[in-house]
Amino acid sequence: xxxxxxxxxxxxxxxxxxxxxxxxxxxxxxxxxxxxxxxxxxxxxxxxxxxxxxxxxxxxxxxxxxxxxxxxxxxxxxxxxxxxxxxxxxxxxxxxxxxxxxxxxxxxxxxxxxxxxxxxxxxxxxxxxxxxxxxxxxxxxxxxxxxxxxxxxxxxxxxxxxxxxxxxxxxxxxxxxxxxxxxxxxxxxxxxxxxxxxxxxxxxxxxxxxxxxxxxxxxxxxxxxxxxxxxxxxxxxxxxxxxxxxxxxxxxxxxxxxxxxxxxxxxxxxxxxxxxxxxxxxxxxxxxxxxxxxxxxxxxxxxxxxxxxxxxxxxxxxxxxxxxxxxxxxxxxxxxxxxxxxxxxxxxxxxxxxxxxxxxxxxxxxxxxxxxxxxxxxxxxxxxxxxxxxxxxxxxxxxxxxxxxxxxxxxxxxxxxxxxxxxxxxxxxxxxxxxxxxxxxxxxxxxxxxxxxxxxxxxxxxxxxxxxxxxxxxxxxxxxxxxxxxxxxxxxxxxxxxxxxxxxxxxxxxxxxxxxxxxxxxxxxxxxxxxxxxxxxxxxxxxxxxxxxxxxxxxxxxxxxxxxxxxxxxxxxxxxxxxxxxxxxxxxxxxxxxxxxxxxxxxxxxxxxxxxxxxxxxxxxxxxxxxxxxxxxxxxxxxxxxxxxxxxxxxxxxxxxxxxxxxxxxxxxxxxxxxxxxxxxxxxxxxxxxxxxxxxxxxxxxxxxxxxxxxxxxxxxxxxxxxxxxxxxxxxxxxxxxxxxxxxxxxxxxxxxxxxxxxxxxxxxxxxxxxxxxxxxxxxxxxxxxxxxxxxxxxxxxxxxxxxxxxxxxxxxxxxxxxxxxxxxxxxxxxxxxxxxxxxxxxxxxxxxxxxxxxxxxxxxxxxxxxxxxxxxxxxxxxxxxxxxxxxxxxxxxxxxxxxxxxxxxxxxxxxxxxxxxxxxxxxxxxxxxxxxxxxxxxxxxxxxxxxxxxxxxxxxxxxxxxxxxxxxxxxxxxxxxxxxxxxxxxxxxxxxxxxxxxxxxxxxxxxxxxxxxxxxxxxxxxxxxxxxxxxxxxxxxxxxxxxxxxxxxxxxxxxxxxxxxxxxxxxxxxxxxxxxxxxxxxxxxxxxxxxxxxxxxxxxxxxxxxxxxxxxxxxxxxxxxxxxxxxxxxxxxxxxxxxxxxxxxxxxxxxxxxxxxxxxxxxxxxxxxxxxxxxxxxxxxxxxxxxxxxxxxxxxxxxxxxxxxxxxxxxxxxxxxxxxxxxxxxxxxxxxxxxxxxxxxxxxxxxxxxxxxxxxxxxxxxxxxxxxxxxxxxxxxxxxxxxxxxxxxxxxxxxxxxxxxxxx
Length: 1305
Known about the structure:
Blueprint: H1 14-17, H2 46-55, H3 66-84, H4 91-110, H5 116-129, H6 135-140, H7 142-149, H8 152-155, H9 160-176, H10 185-197, H11 203-218, H12 230-246, H13 261-273, H14 283-292, H15 299-313, H16 327-336, H17 346-359, H18 366-381, H19 389-404, H20 408-416, H21 423-434, H22 444-457, H23 470-474, H24 476-486, H25 494-508, H26 510-516, H27 523-527, H28 548-571, H29 575-590, H30 602-605, H31 608-620, H32 625-643, H33 658-670, H34 672-685, H35 691-702, H36 715-721, H37 725-747, H38 760-771, H39 777-787, H40 790-793, H41 798-814, H42 821-830, H43 840-851, H44 862-872, H45 878-896, E1 900-902, E2 916-918, H46 921-928, H47 936-952, H48 959-970, H49 978-994, H50 997-1000, H51 1004-1012, H52 1022-1037, H53 1039-1044, H54 1049-1075, H55 1092-1098, E3 1128-1130, E4 1148-1150, E5 1167-1168, E6 1175-1176, H56 1194-1204, E7 1209-1211, E8 1217-1219, H57 1224-1239, H58 1246-1250, H59 1285-1288
Helix pairs in contact: 3-5, 4-5, 5-9, 9-11, 10-11, 12-13, 12-14, 13-15, 14-15, 15-17, 16-17, 17-19, 18-19, 19-22, 22-25, 24-25, 25-26, 28-29, 32-33, 32-35, 34-35, 34-37, 35-38, 37-38, 38-41, 39-41, 41-43, 43-45, 44-45, 44-47, 45-46, 45-47, 47-49, 49-52, 49-55
């Protein structure tokens, strides 16, 4: 490869060693190879990716910046040398040439020649090329690379860009070495230099070095599981931390950099990045050194060290070494140096350390554990009094971690201790008192989260499942107190309280919680003055341990009583009350699903009586149907999941055992036949949108139907393999119903093709689709033959055809049916005349599946499918077009796999023709090109199909075929048909993006003028499409080459305009960056659709702006939110005293609630009629107008209103009704007329005419009746005012603040 000296290239074995097969792995990923280029190589050709990277450098030869110009000039020089020597420009060739150039540059430096710019350019290009060089090449030339680059670290120390390029080169080198080369002295010294750069004061250099170390440690050489350098990195980190921790931090720039606070921060940041790669034996030492850093008094260094310590405590235990062994001493050190409560920076990190440390704490006995828990809890608890929200949040998270560390032994010890001196009982008492304490008023949300964590972590049961949990024995007083706070009128943390009660519901269950917090929803509860707790009903839907019998015995009677109350209220015409009871009944049954999670008493609870009630609800109560269906589905799925528990999940003490779950499934299986009949009936009566929900339940119950299984361990396998008795019975019934309805539909001539999913026949097909996964092979074959019949595939009902093709597709996909693909395709071809548009998507999906199953001797079938597939790409339905493209690709893949095309068997060919052609993708393209001789619609569809095939098989198609296709389709660019031209433009755009430049370059002189002819056509967005095509061409071929092909001066102006637009856009981008405008305000590219072909064909940056005018982009206004701390305040009530020692939680409010409106405060502005109690609203200073008596001529007024008002109408000469329009002129005229009427004057003075300002309408005037005389007045006042009191209360102020015609100011 290279000689040992200078490193000149040898052409012998270079090509074999640089082949992609011997290169890096397929999933090799490399990021940040340079500052300007980031690449990720996954299943891509290395040379093509390298070419794309180099293409971004070549245009900078004329740049005024030396760091851009020098690499571009050097690259052009190297490529010129390759052309002169007729050498292949492979990654290895670039690598060899750059190493030779580097050696020459270093030799000139020794001669005192100023070649630093060239040196930087060489390193930059080496960093760019190195990821594409194969691993054997780097290993074979390791000595040469080391001898040239390793001595450069001291030279490049002052040149950060070149140093980053050097680090990028070594990132590739280290990952390419084998185990023996890692022990080379030069490699170890270089790695030590990179380690030292990881604490460099320059951020980019430091990050690059850290990334190199992290990449090296993360990719150990096989078969090692840990990199050999991890010990060296750990020793270096320990040494760096020791140097930082021993001496005082430098406060001036004259001190050594090793003792500066910045260096210490860099060491800690480096340690965080490689924490998970360190050897376990070094973790305790590093932890002790990190504990010494807070003593130095630097706040940010202390925060960083605490954060790294938190990450250390959460590391998994490997090789028998764990930090938990020394945790007792660590806790003492951390507790001995608490930060100030006012320190908002250090306190959260310190609290997090305590929480993470105690989560892995292991004590010798329960007493020592309780003592340590008490100490840590007491210290952390005090931080809940802090006024800083982040500190309180960190304290709550730390206390939550302490709760998660509760061990069963500790909980059992607390339960056995009957005294109140136990640590856990003291903690519970402390929390209970804090809920009403004024000192912890602003920490109420945090207290509720702590209570939730305690409930969650005290679900330990000292006895069997029927015994109470520790949470029930210890926390019921707190839960009851939270429930009491929740119903208080002024309590402002109801959402947090609901979350706590939801946790209690999930752990304790409704049968326990409702005894402590009853619902109190019935009338007798309200009469007794008990507070209702309807907010508990939505919490029932969570999974909980309560038995199903509790729902049957408690909630079913309750819902029946509420339903009776609802019916009574409806009978007595109390609709509001009836709606309340209806909502409560719905909420009760929404909680039914919570009882269905693997109930232990299923056999006793799911009785025939309860099952009958559920079926009646499914039939007669549409509002309750979703809740019942969801519960029945969960009932099955949870039992099946319990039979096969997944490993790695936390054991739930309330979960069923495998034997209990198997018994539950046996109970459910006995009722399967009855329930399936119910579900089938419900499936037929529900609407189309609700059938999916019913279908999911049918699938769940069908999965457990079958014969009794003998071996429990193989339960699911037996169900999948055996013929299911209940399913067979149900299938036979549904098929008979399907046949009968199919025969009736054939006789009924009144049906039209527009029907879809509304017939009983289509409904039975939906049920058959649900049963397909559980059918036997015999039943599946019979169903396949039935759906392949003429009655199904040529029926007039759209839904029947669609579902027929869908059933055929699913049967073939399941593998239960073995079919002859050739015979089925021929049969489908015979039935194609009766095909409806709605079934095309499913038909093409079926054809795609059948084409992939064709034998290689049946390739003559494919040409007969081409017209249908090609025309399908023009379907209006997007799903049908996608299916058509998939069919085209399926045929292309099948042809590319080889085979024989017998031309004598192709429709339309001479039968005497005995020629046979080998199947290939090029032969398929030739077949497809026959559509270019058809109609314009067919030509356009053919061009689009060819484009899709070229994009998919671009690497398989030969260059000759590419050229033939390109030249053939280029002819259609001059067509007068816009549909054809649109498809050709898409093909050209795809070709420029996909095809090699060697294919397109010879045709540029023909392509460019033809494109320019459409550059001024605005129809079909041709102008924007052509402009974007030219932008792509300019990026790929360069300005000079494209401009030379433009020809006429007028046409060339288009290219000049495109160039100016690009330069203008670039300047705008620079200006936006200088002005500090975010990139989010700039025009964004079209969103990625997920389909690569769609993105290439339709994705465009320039097509987003089709206008020629440059409209300045207005930056978005960023609203600056003031992050002010919302302190807790007391809300005062006028008549009630406040007890600051107890019950203050319900009087606490935040700053945002100080100005909230009091109930009835608007009503206090008005007088009240003593006789009737009604409010009297007097208008004072609101208007100069006064009320006038209603007109006595009601009939005349009504007639005039009907002719002139907005609500009136007139009749034309032909008797047609013409409604009066609500125009601006009419509103102005009506307003003037009403003003004159209210003023009660017969003449209008000239002064009033000169007054431009419109008179304000009277208060509430918009509610005045238009066709009646108005409400009856008593004592000269209107009895009612239909407007908000808050507006009426302000009506008596100055004239400018009066209500307008719409009741607004």
